[in-house]
Specification:
Layout lengths: L1 H25 L2 E9 L8 E6 L14 H9 L3 H13 L2 E7 L10 E8 L5 E7 L6 E5 L6 E2 L1 E2 L2 E2 L2 E6 L4 E2 L53 E10 L2 H22 L1
């Protein structure tokens, strides 16, 4: 009798775990995203977007969109945010959040956001300009390193390192390093380069008015940023587990009595 009861309990427990896993697969997940500036430069507020494969921000070897140009030259997130809002309306985007440390993210500082994703919107894109440059930015998007937030049907915890070799040149403004064209030095001008998105960006060469202390590209292996991703426990799964355990306790009491 004792062996049968134990086997019955094990069967019920497996069913409860299965119920919780099914709940996780179909429910959305909240992820905590932390971006840390490891460079000597300044990172502008960083848009993070969860989406499916039909949403894309930029493509290596092609001209940057006006929205990405606005971010890469001025650190202005307005255009990218509008693209994300359009994506939410169309169903290709699930969530949009901006990471900032009360403003730009200075060397050694970090910013944290919470963002929602599900199995239908499993990709994470982000962008951030290196403010003391003409048009340098870091980022990932569909076809260009977008981050998968789920693996094998389950959410994941991951850490990504951004190296100097990963920094993009938007190809939208000449790298003249003149203060009038560099937002991090108070400039706002723009000189169209008429080129395409490429990497790596050459960094700060000291040919204009930017101090080379801001140069992040000492070597291709120089660290520029760190992206940390951690799923936050889902209330739905916790509730399902609680209900299942209560049910199990009731069944056991009935079986024993």
């Amino acid at each position: 009798m004792k062996i049968k009861t134990m086997a019955f309990m094990a069967s019920i427990t497996v069913s409860i775990i299965g119920l919780c896993l099914v709940g996780q697969l179909h429910a959305s997940t909240i992820f905590e995203i932390k971006i840390t500036n490891l460079s000597p430069n300044v990172l502008t507020p960083a848009p993070f977007i969860t989406h499916n494969a039909s949403f894309d921000l930029f493509t290596e070897g092609y001209a940057a969109s006006p929205e990405v140009e606005l971010l890469a030259e001025e650190g202005n997130t307005t255009g990218v945010r509008d693209l994300a809002m359009d994506g939410i309306t169309a169903g290709s985007v699930m969530d949009y959040q901006e990471a900032f440390d009360g403003g730009p993210i200075f060397p050694g500082a970090f910013a944290t956001i919470n963002i929602e994703a599900d199995m239908s919107h499993p990709l994470l894109s982000y962008l951030s300009m290196l403010a003391v440059s003409n048009d340098a930015f870091i980022g990932r998007t569909t076809g260009d390193g977008a981050i998968y937030l789920f693996f094998g049907g389950r959410h994941v915890s991951r850490r990504y390192w951004v190296y100097a070799r990963n920094v993009w040149d938007a190809g939208t403004e000449d790298n003249d390093e003149l203060a009038v064209n560099v937002p991090g030095l108070g400039g706002s001008g723009s000189i169209s380069e008429g080129s395409v998105v490429t990497r790596p960006h050459p960094g700060i060469l000291g040919t204009g008015e930017i101090d080379t202390d801001f140069n992040w590209a000492i070597s291709g292996d120089t660290l520029v940023a760190k992206i940390e991703i951690s799923p936050i426990p889902e209330p739905t799964t916790i509730v399902l587990l609680g209900i299942g355990l209560l049910g199990l306790a009731g069944v056991i009491r009935k079986k024993i009595s």
